[in-house]
Structure formats: C-alpha cells, structure tokens
UniProtKB/TrEMBL annotation:
Lineage per the UniProt record: Eukaryota, Viridiplantae, Streptophyta, Embryophyta, Tracheophyta
Gene Ontology MF annotations: fatty acid 2-hydroxylase activity; iron ion binding
Family: Belongs to the sterol desaturase family.
Species of provenance: Salix brachista
InterPro entries: Fatty_acid_hydroxylase, Scs7
Ranges of residues in domain Fatty acid hydroxylase: 88-226
GO terms for cellular component: endoplasmic reticulum membrane
Keywords tagged on the record: Endoplasmic reticulum, Fatty acid biosynthesis, Fatty acid metabolism, Lipid biosynthesis, Lipid metabolism, Membrane, Metal-binding, Oxidoreductase, Transmembrane, Transmembrane helix, Zinc
Membrane topology: Multi-pass membrane protein
The protein's name in its UniProt record: Fatty acid hydroxylase domain-containing protein
Membrane spanning residue stretches: 53-71, 83-101
Compartment annotation: Endoplasmic reticulum membrane
Superkingdom of the organism of origin: Eukaryota
Amino acid sequence: MVAQEFTVDLDKPLVFQVGHLGEAYEEWVHQPIVSREGPRFFENEFVESLTRTVWWAIPSIWLPVVCYCVLKSVRMGHALPEIALMVVSGIFIWTLLEYTLHRFLFHIKTKSYWGNTLHYLLHGCHHKHPMDGLRLVFPPAATAILLVPFWNMVLLFASPSITPALFGGGLLGYVMYDCTHYYLHHGHPGNDVPKNLKKYHMNHHFRVQDKGFGITSSLWDRVFGTLPPSKMATKM
C-alpha cells in the first residue's frame, strides 16, 4: 500500500498539522510563502497570543535588564574599562552562540511528528513565512525561561562580580540580534553595510538555506566555512 500524501491546510491552525508531513516536512518548510500576514498556529486564543510579539517589546523589556546587570558589576567594584571589556566580551560570545544555535539547532533535520512540530515552532515557521512581522523576534516569556540556565552557565566560568556584566553583554548582543533580524526583513536600508547584510540574509531564506547562518554579521560563516557560494567566490 502507498501512504496517501498529507496536505497542510493553511486556513487552519498549523502547528499540529506539520508533524504529519513526515519526511516531506523538510522540503515543505523551505518553500517560503511571502506575505506580511502570518498563519494561525493554535486554536486557543491565549496560546496563540503568546506566539506573536511586536519587535519593540524586545528592547523595551530587556535593555533595562542589561542596565541592571551592568550596574550590578559596577557596584561590586569594577572600573568602567573593565565593565566595557566584560560587555564587549558578552556581545562577542553571543555572536558565536547566535551562529551555533542557528546552524545546529534551528536547522536540524527532522521527520518525526513531534520533531517536525517542535522545529516548526522554533524556526521552521520563520522559513515558511519569512515576512510574518509578529513572529520575527523571540517571545519574551520563552526568553525569560532560557535566561535562567544561561545565567547559571556564565556563573560556572566567571566570578560573581564579573557574571552580571558579562551576562548583560550577552543579553545586549541578543537584543541587537533580534532588532537587526527584524530590520533585515522589514527595514529599508539606505547605505551599503545594512543593504549588504539584508541581501546576505535574504539569500539564506530564498536561495541557499543551508549556508549563511550569521544574522548580525558573516564572521562565523567565514570562520567555519559556511559562506554561501557567491561570498565564497568573492573571498577567493
């Protein structure tokens, strides 16, 4: 017997449908639908509302936390040059984390029902509906949960007085990443640097989806050999 191919109904909530695609999910999710109007995820209104986030919520919520963390290290006796080094180090570490998560977690291959479902929630929805403006940044509730283990991880490698500023720098890096990501999809760059960055990221969405994992820069793509072909030609 040949199993009947499952078809996703885009007029119904998607999250619990995509798992049924099985091995066909990988191809389906990388065929983008370019529309500013996003799909419905869940039938329940409250759960659905948790999946939608306006971009300005990210700096509004997390920049005060960044300031609190940095000031905490200042109060513990660190001089401003030391604080600056901690914050810049945190931002730098975030860029590597940004690349690593995007390449190895967000682009993990799945084919099981729950694997497809979780991947769609995590990142697949963004590739299927790349212009959905309310699902471009990470929901603050989910971020708050993830910050707890990240704080404890930093605490393992840094002293109690360094941890707040280093963590704050990483969080600042995340805010910069999410705001940059939104801008690359919906902004209209006027000079070459953001124009090239937008082109680089759109190339990841619409041409070479298994390369170009950097969002805020192509640094780690250059380091780890995941530049898209056109960039590789330029580099050579």
